[in-house]
Amino acid sequence: MKRRSRWLIIVVFAAVALVCARLGIWQLHRLQERRALNRAALAERTRAPLDLELDDTLASVSVNRRVRVTGRYDDSRDIVLRGRAYQGVPGVEIVSPLVNRSGTSAILVNRGFVPTPDANTVPTEAYRAPGETHVTGIALSMSSGGGVPIRHGSGTTWAKLDRNLLSRRFPYHINSIYIQQTPDSVLPSGSSAPARFPRPLEPPPLDDGPHLSYAIQWFAFSLMAVVFGILIARQSSDRPTLRLS
Q1: How far apart, in whole angstroms, are the C-alpha atoms of residue 91 and residue 82?
Q2: SS3 state at 27
Q3: pLDDT for position 84
Q4: Is 184 helix (H, G, I), strand (E, B) or coil?
Q5: In terms of DSSP bridges, do strands 173-181 and 132-141 run parallel, antiparallel, or are they unpaired?
Q6: Can you tell me the distance from the alpha carbon of 92 to that of 148, in angstroms, rounded to the nearest whole number?
Q7: pLDDT for 153-172, tens place per residue?
Q8: Measured at the alpha carbon of residue 143, what is the angle toward residues 140 and 146, in degrees to the nearest 5?
Q9: If pLDDT is split at 50, 70 and 90, which confidence band does 19 have?
Q10: Which residues have a Cβ under 8 Å from the Cβ of 63 and sit 6 or more positions away?
Q11: Distance between terminal CA atoms of the chain?
């Protein structure tokens, strides 16, 4: 290999090492940001539940705040989130609009998991909760996009909650937050215990995510590039020179 080519390879490895190291540092910054957000979320979740009124002002509620709300489910407009699993069992999640007494505003409530073999089809009428209902849960933000509704016979399933698409399907205002019902939460009036299904789910976990493992990978790539660069540089310096006698 020519000397010029060898030094070009060394420069390339040095550049790769710097880029990978920078990406590793960026992932560590992302990890610190996520941990800060997790601390704030945990602080909201551990506060006393906030009693809400079902009106248009719920957008000001802090995400991850523990809340309580009373209303009645509009079971005729249940939302089925397909492709879910709970402890290895396939199924769906049922989300129902909880409507205020005047019928002008509602908040979506993820009531929990229902097992079904195809993780798609479920008779939602079997899980209706008539009458006034008291719900306790975690307030979460509802984004727009990615809903991907698919129609199956007389029903429709969704990949996720999509505020833009869903708001067009209701005759009342839908709030920009929704409630993740927690296991200790819903008790329809006159009931002594919550129904077995839908099974309320725990709030989304507050973990570090993949950032630390990604950072380790990037630093490992950087170290490999440095090692390879050093090996090539040593080959260049250790190469014997020919002398003419």
Answers
A1: 7
A2: helix
A3: 93
A4: coil
A5: antiparallel
A6: 15
A7: 778 899 999 988 988 888 88
A8: 130
A9: very high
A10: 41, 44, 139, 140, 141, 177
A11: 25
